[in-house]
Amino acid sequence: MGLGIGELAIGAAIVVVAIAAIYFIAIYNNLVRQRNEARNAWAQIDVQLRRRHDLIPNLVESVKGYATHEKSTLDAVVQARNAALSAKGPAASGEAEGLLGAALGKLFALAEAYPDLKANQNFLALQEELASTENKIGFARQYYNDAATRYNNAREVFPANLIAGSFEPAELFEITVAAQREAPQVKLS
Fold first, then answer.
1. Does 178 fall in a domain?
2. pLDDT in tens, 72-105
3. CA distance linking residue 155 with residue 165, whole number of Å
4. Domain range for residue 49?
5. Domain CATH for 58
6. CA 12, 18, 20, 25: dihedral to nearest 10 degrees?
7. Closest CA to 53 of 23, 83, 25
8. Which class for 7: exposed (0-12), middle (13-18), buried (19 or more C-beta within 10 A)?
9. CA-to-CA distance for 163 and 147, rounded, in angstroms?
10. Which of 14, 56, 140, 175 could be bridged to 45 by S-S, CB 3.0 to 4.6 A?
């Protein structure tokens, strides 16, 4: 005896439902992987930002000995560092880090007025370490923004958007301080 039309229809319906379930499970698992990749990328930025924040007090201390009457510049760096430490999430961190970068730029410009400071090995080593950290932050920020964009794209395309309701979009880590976007001025004297 063969299968009847009703039994074939039920069998076909079960196969279609099973394929659809497997497809939606694959979409869900992809969203989880993409979200975790973005979170990991943010954690890498956080490590580099922490390193940057840890270098700044040493840098400020090395400048204090040479530029004691430049207290407002030093205070601005310390305040910007504290704001960056308390910032939560990529958007707030991007803004705070932009302000910190601007304050550090003023600190390094200040160093130009003090030849002894510019020649101080401790200051030069800290400046070099901070420059290296800035490069690492730049690479980590690029990787994070790429991962966040991939994740956001994965959660917004059809049919993933049908099941992505519990997946919050990832914020991008962007520089919001206009001074940070400008090319540095190089003056040769």
1. no
2. 888 888 899 999 988 888 888 888 988 898 888 8
3. 9
4. 5-173
5. 1.20.1440.20
6. -170
7. 83
8. exposed
9. 20
10. 140
